[in-house]
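Researcher: We are triaging several targets before committing to wet-lab work. For this one, the compound of interest is zinc ion. I'm pasting the protein sequence and the ligand SMILES. What I need is the predicted three-dimensional arrangement of the protein with the ligand bound, expressed as structure tokens, so it can go straight into our comparison scripts without reformatting.
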Amino acid sequence: MPDATGPDQIFQRALANGEILLPKCKDCGAYHFFPRVLCPHCHGAAISWKRATGAGWVHTTTVVRRKPERGGDYNVCMVELEEGVRMMSRVEGISPENVVIDMAVTAFVGEAEGTPAVLFKPAEA
Amino acid sequence: MTDRLRGKSAIVGTGHAGFGEAHGLTAYDVMAQSALAALDDAGLRLSDVDGLFCTMMEDSMPALMAAEYLGIQPRFIDGTMTGGSSFVNYLTSATMALDAGLCDVALIVYGSNQRTASGKLVTASRPPAYEAPYNPRYPISAYAMAAARHMHEYGTTREHLADVAVAARSWAQHNPEAFERGPLTREDVLGARMVGDPLTVRDCCLVTDGGGAIVMVRAERAKDFLKPPVYVLGSAAESSHRQISQMKDFTVTAACESGKRAFAAAGVSPADIQAVELYDAFTINTILFLEDLGFCAKGEGGAFVEGGRIAPGGALPVNTNGGGLSCVHPGMYGIFTVIEAARQIRGDAPGLQLDGIDLALAHGNGGVLSSQVTAILGSQNTL
Ligand SMILES: [Zn+2]
């Protein structure tokens, strides 16, 4: 397999290795998400990659209602990471109704739709 | 649009077709029937149209498909796709094109057969790569998360959301063109099937067929047509994101900016507006846009819509045709905000016609609270 070159490839390749990398601008120092070739804050094109601490909080959340025979209800939420970026994900390990705004969560690399994905679980108290 | 364009263009025809269920018709059939209806309303023919403003849900080159179907060869074309706001956005580009002499008769047109074709939203859009793995239900999950955040920050309640749906239905009950006209109570909305917490199926817009069209000309010849002209006094857009995960503040939309500039261009303020037509894809939209357009303060939208205040006989007439929640919602509703605003001003609204409407606002929303476009329309008295 050739080396990852584009920002999406770098992110996905890290995920496949169980690692969550976040793009960080070398010019203004701000993180951004989703990965891209420039910084959406200052538009600088020098991007570095940092390992996410995994700490975050639920910014907003919903329960997608689905018939039990098709797999039942599930959570979709927005998580704000300690680094200051938000990503869509879901919180696993608790019922979807119990995912609430402001709850502390911890990221892990799991699987969604058959591909490696950033998922969250409730943070240890 | 700046105030240099204030009142430079006018709507001289509106039309629609295929409301509810358009059995046996394609989306382009409904589009074309809408175009004919609007041209008939103006006393014009398709051969007079030299500017076409169109997008559809199912293709990547819908404006070309529409021109070809209609048998016209437009010398100005705009197919900018910003979702349901596109058709309010075309008021700006049509005004610019008319003013510059790039066209003489502008036709804004849309059609959809999504209800009879599939029963759900038809779209050529691809799911965003960084959202798709989590299976958000598009677009409900996005609006549900905006509603949840608004409730968390401002104490907005599900009852407030329900009151938006009830108000829309009470307008629709007077409108023979509306698709849903049965009784609807707050309890009905709260007790309906939950689809994406906190939104029940009654917090969501209809899935119908339907099309709409608008004919515009330069203001100087606007009095030569069959109906009283409705002038575009100001229109403005602001785009903040495409994917819901990129929305900076889930409780504030770019309507703050589009509204501010549309009001400035028209030289009026929210207190002057007599009828408000908002893109209500979900009940939270109405609350967000009333706040962001300046009809009430941020966070007070819930109280503003409570207890029939935006229903017939209330403090402010909002979505006087029944809106996307109860009148019609064929994939993209934006054009119908303009049509209802124009008809209230002309005095031929299909449902409850309000008395002496000189100033009305139409607001389009596109994507997932992504593109916001505000237009202020006025009668001859407002020039
Ligand atoms: Zn930067």
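Researcher: Any quick observations?
Model: Residues A 25, 27-28, 30, 39, 41-42, 44 surround zinc ion (CB under 6 Å).
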